[in-house]
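Reopening this one. Same input as before:
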Amino acid sequence: MSTEAPSSPDFLKVEGLAKTYEGLAEPVFESVNFGIARGEFVCIIGHSGCGKTTILNALAGLEKASEGYVFMDGREVTGPGLERGVVFQGHALMPWLSVRRNIAFAVRSRWPEWSAAQVDRQVEQYVAMVGLSAAIDKKPSQLSGGMKQRVGIARAFAIQPKMLLLDEPFGALDALTRGTIQDELLRICAETQQTVFMITHDVDEAILLADRILLMSNGPRARIAEIVRNTMPRSRQRATMHHDPQYYRIRNHLVDFLVHRSKDLSHGRAPEHPPELSPGLADEPSPEPAPAGAQVLPLRSVA
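Same output, byte for byte:
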């Protein structure tokens, strides 16, 4: 039986989430608490192994947490459902079906009473939204990696989910393709007011896309250590956002956390209820400095 969520302004509410795998003495993560407002785009960043994908799977209902609860739109998430769309790191397309039929399969699952014409109109609308109308009757083997990921995004949006869950969907793409699809995602989310939770290892991607950024400490016993509010205008663009002084303040804060502070907050040393910070604002107090003599790593080592 599902449980009613406690009174909260959050569309999605995560309370006391923890995951312990059999054979491990300590949980991978524990005491994970955060909320997401309707229409908000939230990114989560942390080192590999801290449990980001497991958290996403719990939000999707694909994996059961050892402790805690996930509530969406006032009801507990107890299993997978079509009100949550998921885009994985791989495109997860059925290779024997065309783009049209891959997306139609999801649309028919969402609205089994629809006629073939209704399904086709829905498919064509979202294929056009990601700029693939010319390839709608091609099979995945005839598409580039970036095109396949666009199909995955179109399929997720086509079922009109209440929430979109993205697990590093652009990680395997080249920089130019990645940038193009990020821009398309921003445009589509602005048009649809979609609520999004996304895993990324890319600091600049998080700054471009997210309204808020969740920073996870290292595992074991990882937690959401800080929530960074992106105070840059939502109209920011990739080509010009580095001209905003806030960009460097936010970026430096994220990199400092990942390089220095995240490891010092492992083993449950992060607070159970993370503070929300606005490092982009000039008068925002700075976090505690890293210990003296801490090693400075290039950004590419963060992921």
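So the earlier flakiness isn't reproducible anymore. For the record, Residues 41 and 196 are 5 Å apart (CA to CA).
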